[in-house]
Write a structure and sequence with these properties.
Elements: E1 14-17, E2 20-23, H1 27-32, E3 50-57, H2 64-70, E4 78-84, E5 95-100, H3 108-122, E6 127-131, H4 135-140, E7 143-146, H5 148-154, H6 173-186, E8 190-195, H7 197-212, E9 218-223, H8 241-262, E10 266-271, H9 278-287, E11 291-292, H10 295-300, H11 305-320, E12 327-332, H12 335-338, H13 340-355, H14 357-361, H15 366-376, H16 379-387, H17 390-396, H18 413-427, E13 437-442, H19 444-447, H20 453-471, E14 477-482, E15 492-497, E16 502-507, E17 510-515, H21 525-539, H22 555-558, H23 563-569
Parallel strand pairs: 5-6, 5-8, 8-9, 9-14, 10-12, 10-13, 11-12
Antiparallel strand pairs: 1-2, 3-4, 4-15, 6-7, 14-15, 16-17
Helix pairs in contact: 3-20, 8-9, 9-21, 11-18, 13-16, 15-16
């Protein structure tokens, strides 16, 4: 156990049921309470012994001039790396606010635990303020002081239920001023924002705003998203991806086993990942599904929806020729948005609904909305819109997300594909077999799972890194860990300026600085592994059955990393 960690009291949690106390902890929960996250060498001697080493200045991944103009005070900050050595201790207690932002990701509680233990090790009177319900809690001043007893109850657990999460987008001066009022009232030395690309974009904007107002309060971001689309050379993976994709892979393996047993269903499984196909790619590698669709590849090849359907039909027909009327198709959540013709349609729909919101909301029926929108669209997009089934048209017009975009997760792409595959097969006079489909969408099943040992270690370490950055007054940084494929004893802790990840993107019809999403690299080793084997997997029963996440046992099982991380980092 690291020198600066507090003794963890393992205690049962009780609720009342018909007057009797019922233990709420499962046997697994009880064992997980005893798990002490492993730390890299630069952190395992105690936070007070960490030395920050300044590296080279940074620049944004794209649009350098525009990003620099938007962040005059925090642009170009240097990279930071951690080394063991020296001795530092603040002269006063640290007061740190923590915010869980966006969707859940396994390990978030351990981030808070890492912050909690670290600042308490620096000064026993340091305090963590948990803002209730996400960024909205910071804006409204709704918080809870997290004490030792409560923190101990949430170590190594999944979910964000310690303080809850939310999707409030902090973007206006009025919102930031309300945050400043709360920060001042609580005399916070720092705010740690645990979130994905949009949440960390907000963290960078808040850091810039506070400096512009002459405040010294630090803002530190933590890379969270099960989608895996928040990463670069300095941030190899976002936390939660490891646990979520292993959870989904277990379920996919179970379905593949069932398909091979029943021998009568094709299972179309949609997986989370609106903007990138990292989850689908990893799950395909973990399970050897018959068809693993990758949105980025479809976009690059400029494939139509019919061509995507035909690629699935190819596997169905080839397997049917062997007497196999079953299989597994993995579908990325955001697939439909990567098909060029539909992507152009969705982009125009987003812009039109932002521009004509009041007029559109005033229309009194779904049919009227569809007809009116078709009249607004450019001819080529209107033609694509008319070809879609009515159910998909209606789903394109549902309420937008907080950023003004179509909520792609609500579009039943898996059903659309299976229906089109079935229709395609019926038109083929040479196809005489029966085709039956089952549909699944795996999303919530993995977001709040108990973190793997990897995510438990990674998240706790990120929390400790955030505390070191706060200790030295660093703002506008994201906590990072590198060299993740080599074992914790070789991990390298540090800080990455958030503006380094920025580019300019169209949001609500206007160009805004945001963190660039990391898409699947079609020239990378992970996709290359899939490309090498998928022709055989389309035909064969090459299924792997990963089974449930293991927390105890041989390190090569319970501490295993994802295939993506292993292939990308060697």
């Amino acid at each position: 156990m690291a020198a600066f960690l507090f003794h963890r009291v393992n205690f049962p949690v009780f609720r009342q049921l018909n007057g009797a106390a019922v233990n709420q902890l499962s046997p697994l929960d009880q064992h997980r309470k005893t798990y002490s996250p492993k730390l890299p060498p630069s952190l395992n001697q105690g936070i007070e012994r960490v030395h920050l080493k300044t590296g080279e200045a940074t620049k944004s991944v794209k649009d350098e001039g525009a990003v620099r103009e938007a962040f005059p005070k925090t642009y170009g900050l240097p990279l930071l790396s951690f080394e063991a050595g020296g001795s530092t201790s603040p002269s006063k207690p640290l007061r740190v606010g923590v915010v869980l932002s966006g969707g859940q990701a396994p390990g978030g509680h351990n981030v808070i635990a890492g912050v909690f233990d670290s600042i308490r090790a620096l000064h026993q009177e340091s305090a963590v303020y948990g803002f209730i319900g996400g960024p909205g809690g910071l804006e409204k001043g709704q918080y809870e002081v997290i004490g030792s007893e409560k923190m101990d109850a949430y170590r190594n657990t999944g979910g964000f239920d310690i303080i809850g999460s939310g999707r409030t987008k902090l973007e206006t001066p009025e919102q930031f001023d309300r945050c400043i009022e709360v920060i001042g009232r609580l005399q916070l030395d720092a705010v740690v924002i645990i979130g994905g690309d949009d949440s960390n974009t907000n963290a960078a904007i808040l850091a810039e705003y506070l400096l512009g107002k002459g405040l010294s309060t630090c803002v530190v971001g933590i890379p969270k998203t099960i989608d895996g689309d928040l990463k670069n050379a300095r941030i190899p993976t976002s936390f939660g991806f490891d646990t979520a994709v292993k959870t989904y892979s277990e379920l996919i393996g179970n379905i593949a086993r069932d398909a091979r047993s029943a021998r009568k269903y094709w299972h179309f499984i949609k997986l989370m990942g609106r903007s990138a196909s990292h989850i689908t790619l990893e799950a395909g590698l973990q399970t050897c599904a018959n068809v693993t669709l990758i949105s980025e590849e479809i976009e690059e090849k400029k494939e139509s929806l019919d061509q995507v359907v035909e690629s699935v039909c190819r596997s169905v027909k080839a397997r049917a020729a062997q007497g196999k009327d079953y299989g597994v198709v993995l579908v990325p959540e955001g697939l439909i948005e990567f098909i060029p013709s539909i992507k152009a349609l969705i982009a125009e729909v987003n812009d039109l609904l932002a521009e004509k919101e009041k007029e559109f909301v005033g229309l009194n029926s779904a049919e009227k909305k569809v007809q009116t929108l078709a009249g607004w669209l450019k001819p080529e997009n209107a033609a694509t819109f008319r070809l879609l089934p009515n159910s998909i048209k209606a789903q394109l017009l549902l309420d937008r997300d907080p950023h003004g975009n179509v909520q792609v997760s609500l579009i039943e792409t898996e059903k659309l594909l299976s229906e089109m595959v079935g229709a395609n097969l019926k038109k083929d006079p040479g196809y005489k077999r029966k085709f039956s489909a089952q549909h699944h969408f795996f999303g919530y099943e993995g977001r709040a799972a108990a973190p793997t040992n990897f995510d438990a270690d990674y998240c706790y370490g990120l929390g400790c890194v955030a505390a070191v950055l706060i200790r030295d007054g660093k703002t506008g940084y994201m906590a990072s860990m590198r060299n993740l494929s080599k074992g914790v004893e070789n991990w390298e802790a540090g800080g990455v300026p958030i503006t380094m990840l920025f580019n300019m993107e169209l949001r609500h019809g206007k160009l805004k600085p945001v963190i660039q999403k990391a898409l699947v690299d079609l020239k990378g080793p992970a996709f290359g592994e899939l490309a090498e084997h998928r022709a055989a997997w389309e035909i064969e029963d090459a299924y792997l059955y990963p089974g449930p996440i293991q927390y105890f046992g041989p390190a090569d099982i319970c501490d295993a990393i994802t295939k993506t991380l292993s292939l990308e980092m060697g």
